[in-house]
Amino acid sequence: MRTVIKAAYAAPAMGLAGLGLPLLIYLPEYYGTVIGLPLGLVGMAFLAARLADIIVDPLAGALMDRVRTRHGRFRFWLAVGTPLLMLSVYGLFMPSKGTGFSHLVLCLAGTYAAWSLCFVAHLGWGGTLSDDYDERNAIFAWCQALFLVGGLAITAIPLLPALRAAPEHALPAMGWFILLSLPAGVALALLLVREHPAGRRRVPGWRDYARLLGQAGIARLLAADLLSSIAVYAAGGVFFFYYGVFHGLAPAQTAALLFAVKLGAMPGAYLWSRLGSLLEKHRAMAVGFAGLAIMTLVVHLVPWSGLTVGMAILGVFGVFLSADPVLVRSMMADLGDERRLTTGADQMGALAALLSVSDKMAAAIGPALALAALDKAGFDPHAPRQTPLALTMLATVAIWAPLVLQAGAALLVRLHPLTASRHQAIRTELAVLEGG
User: Fold this and answer.
1) Which residue in 48, 129, 144, 293 has its CB near the most CB atoms, within 10 A?
2) How far apart are CA 333 and CA 353, in angstroms?
């Protein structure tokens, strides 16, 4: 597959990435301060939307597996979801003064539902672009790279001089970035990238979905992904607290560390694409999870002589952080081939949805548990000094618990049953059965 095709497929990831940070940080604060809605109501709206969003993903995946059009399964739903997402984003990011609670709820529901539709469609489409063991790594590496570009762009928008002077305009500016980059990326993908027809593959029935997690490789991979993601999100939830307390960094300096993580993740996307081919995906992913555990230990135990050293360490951490979104997605696509051989049913949409649900569950569980543990230990972010118990708990949720979870993920994925040779045999059998 040509590089331009891989890049074109990955183009929508840039706009989709732009939604993450605003939904997590900027939108709740904006509706509470600039719009003036009660913070309790704002919090309820976002909690309800996030919980409902987890249900939307598997429904979207099943819909894509079962509904087939002459334009394909995943391309069609990406094309349907994009204008719905743009309309919802416009209403959510460009509210007028006096906007009420019902407007927030409606736009949040539309944004989360359309985002799920687009994300699952895009991820599932990537799994069908190639059945080659190695090429799938490159496809998802491109996706991760452009996703990081979108995330960096959104991070940089509030730092622009004009917006630093008028911070209330930062959120609408982020909205315009999404409204311009997403349809441009989707149009590029739809125009340049074809979707392989499903052919004689059986449309899955509801029993196929009920038995999906019974396939050992799928359950093991999802468990490893969930453990690692909980570790990352838990540490992320206390990121500023940890570096402020243990390394004495100001918020601006800690933000520089976060930027270093994202920069390190950029070359990491290419590195893990190559290592997945050289070592086989499950071995490379085990190295990736183990590397995150080791770098977590390095962050805590290696003395820092300044911010530059810290940025270098966090940059290496970012390199390891790219392993999961590249290799786990590629491995899940391979498992989709195995599932198709076993059952005759194509469930790539459902598998993409399961990965999305795993990430969203981790994003909800990780920070919630970490912050609840800190609160229970009496941690006070405004206090000049913390109690020994609070310091111990902060180190536990930021370092020791993530280290254990990453090590567990490495052990799980190391036992992954689908090797390169086994996948090649599956491809050969599928070619015979499906007339490919």
Assistant:
1) 144
2) 12
